[in-house]
């Protein structure tokens, strides 16, 4: 695909408000970050770009001088509906989903309930803190901050161990709401959905296998030799087709825009179990959404072009 954008002035918003963005900032070479990759791609496609840090004191004034905003922030404020609501208030068009879908995607409790309501099997929730006390279980469980991305704010709890210290560790990271789930064995599968020609299209799901206990933050940021990528449509075509259908259904239910990414655990006994979905999927050139896109014949510039086109429609 060869594309050309109209002569747009696009501001790419970045910054380190959330724990997740701080991790990316600390681990990435600025010259090869997703922010710079997006800017390079947009300029190749014919747009003019401005890199706008969220901490800029003239943030609101600069935003309104642009034709389109390309948020490239993760976690709190960046993808929880807060930034999206602010952009709506300023009446400035932006890339990816709006307030509702972003807020739902950032809350693991709510996103699982919405997924269940449209027939998507999910990992069961054992407890929700602070509404309920976390519990000692006979088997391994996993404790998650409801609004932690990139596996930030997660702790594995061994069988019959009190959750006090694990919970304390998560709360000390600045999170306040936590869920406890059974620890389900299996690799992670991800399936992106992106609008192509006004139609939500599920890209090929991939499986991410890791040597670690689970697909943790360190593996996501520095995967390298620790991870291998597999085409789920080759390994298990019926499972791939099923979660693609589920992903499109969720996309439509929440009136999403641009790209989202659904994450699953693939378990031998239970099949594909939904964990969460992300309305601001990472856009590093080696990210999972780009790996899925490449299987389907799209390159990095194609995905950036499609995201902008979706925002302009």
Automatic annotation (TrEMBL):
Pfam families in the cross-refs: Dala_Dala_lig_C, Dala_Dala_lig_N
Domain ATP-grasp: 112-309
Gene Ontology cellular component list: cytoplasm
Keyword Transferase tagged: no
Subcellular localization: Cytoplasm
Domain of life: Bacteria
Keyword Nucleotide-binding: yes
GO biological-process terms attached to the record: cell wall organization; peptidoglycan biosynthetic process; regulation of cell shape
Keywords: ATP-binding, Cell shape, Cell wall biogenesis/degradation, Cytoplasm, Ligase, Nucleotide-binding, Peptidoglycan synthesis
GO molecular function, one term: ATP binding
Predominant location category: cytoplasm
Family note: Belongs to the D-alanine--D-alanine ligase family.
Name the record gives this protein: ATP-grasp domain-containing protein
Native source organism of the sequence: Corynebacterium mastitidis
